[in-house]
Design brief:
The chain is an alpha/beta fold. 41% of the residues lie in helices and 15% in strands. Strands 3-4-2-5-6-1-7 form a seven-stranded parallel beta sheet, sandwiched between helices. A six-stranded mixed beta sheet has the order 9-10-11-12-8-13, sandwiched between helices.
Length: 422
């Protein structure tokens, strides 16, 4: 019998009972098929790879397909190497045969040519990370076919239910309605000791100035005047309510990048949805009219970071739904803190040394150029107080455990986003 403890130790992992017990139980199943919905931070990736390694050593699997979001591709590859699992990264529909484990991104796997190629193999086991992205009526629904056809299928997500009951039933039906979920308090009770830090919440109320209130009113009035798509209307309303002044300030930098659809509204950066209104003459005039007004929300953020004694020496992540807002906050903070020197900068990313403060922002445009987890960890280690400004594209699956404070710059409308960020 294979030793799970030895596998974890050789991979350099800590030993936790909930991980060992899950994998040892699953090994008794002839064909593993379940949804692992453990809380964020409980090691879903580790448990999946521990199971893969054990099944491989027992000779029970010879063809494993692992499908992951692009944002965590490097992280999965690194973890596979730590478990000494040789794998092949699929970057073309014409990939070589002969490997026991294949790794591919969600967005590649859903494409027709890749899907046709993947379906030619009878997979012993398919693993899908961030499986809540498989939704009815979306392109990623195609991934369900791979799960259904495989001898075994493991779905991983901390947020299996995103608010739509039909989507949840569809997702769980792929694994015979077997859902395993442990929360942090369950694990601590199981381990018999305190493992995770206590989570505290604060709400910072920011009262809009008269100018900001008037600006918001004017934007909402314009939306009634013009005939725009509902999804664009929703995004503009959310963006303006988030901060009308930062909306006006960044309006000229909004260009048509990517798609604007329901999927992007729920989980992507929302700037492409603003491109359709960026050239409205009335909006441009409003931007010029209010460009000199005080941004109360930014002032509250700056005060929180510089004057709140509880945050001095902390590692802070500031999440926003908009790439342009992330860039705006970086520029405002580095411009007003003083003694700031930008040490690295390219499209969608910049890092600055502000003495005791280290400030960085990153958006999806930098995703292929940096390893978000590595650069964020380096920032946290290098400065007494670190501030990482990011969009949600960096919140799913990326290891940001070096940070201990989360600031939501806008109200979090989605429970899925809220869980992923925390």
């Amino acid at each position: 019998m294979v030793s799970l403890i030895d596998i974890l130790r050789l991979a350099g992992k800590d030993l936790y009972k909930h991980q060992l017990d899950l994998v040892s139980d699953v090994l008794w199943l002839p064909r593993p098929r379940f949804l692992l919905a453990d809380d964020v931070g409980l090691g879903k990736t580790i448990q999946a790879l521990l199971l893969v390694k054990a099944l491989m050593e027992l000779g029970r699997v010879n063809s494993v397909l692992i499908i992951v979001p692009r944002s965590v591709l490097n992280q999965w590859s690194d973890e596979l190497n730590k478990f000494e699992i040789q794998h092949y990264l699929i970057e073309s529909p014409d990939y070589p045969l002969g490997y026991r484990v294949y790794l591919i991104t969600l967005d590649r796997a859903k494409m027709v040519d890749y899907m046709d190629s993947l379906q030619k193999i009878q997979w012993d086991l398919v693993i899908i990370d961030e499986a809540h992205k498989i939704r009815l009526g979306r392109e990623r629904e195609r991934l369900a076919h791979l799960c259904k056809r495989a001898d075994g299928c493991i779905l991983l997500t901390a947020t299996p239910h995103t608010g739509d009951e039909d989507d949840y039933r569809f997702l769980t039906s792929l694994v015979n309605n077997i859902v395993i979920r442990r929360e942090k308090r369950d694990v601590e009770e199981y381990e018999g000791k305190k493992i995770f830090p206590r989570l505290n919440y604060w709400i910072v109320q920011v009262k809009a100035s008269n100018e900001e209130s008037r600006a918001l009113y004017e934007v909402l009035k314009l939306l009634k005047k013009y005939n725009v798509e509902n999804i664009v209307r929703v995004v503009v309303e959310k963006r303006a309510m988030s901060s009308p002044l930062s909306f006006f300030t960044t309006l000229k930098r909004v260009v048509a990048r990517g798609r604007c659809g329901e999927e992007e509204l729920e989980e992507g950066e929302l700037d492409p949805c603003l491109s359709g209104v960026a050239n409205w003459r009335d909006l441009v005039e409003l931007a010029n009219q209010y460009s000199g007004a005080v941004d109360r929300k930014f002032e509250a953020l700056k005060k929180l970071l510089t004057e709140n004694v509880e945050l001095i020496g902390k590692k802070v992540i500031v999440f926003t739904e908009y790439a342009t807002t992330a860039e705006y906050l970086f520029q405002r903070l580095t411009g007003e803190l003083g003694n700031c020197r930008v040490v690295e900068s390219f499209d969608g990313y910049a890092r600055a040394d502000c003495g005791d403060f280290g400030i960085m922002y990153a958006t999806s445009r930098a995703r292929d150029k940096i390893d978000a987890g590595v650069v964020a960890s380096n920032l946290a280690e290098s400065f007494k107080t670190a501030v990482f400004i990011s969009t949600d594209i960096m919140s799913e699956g990326v290891n940001l455990q070096a940070f201990n404070v989360v600031v939501n710059y806008e109200v979090v409308w989605s429970p899925t986003k809220h869980v992923q960020r925390v």
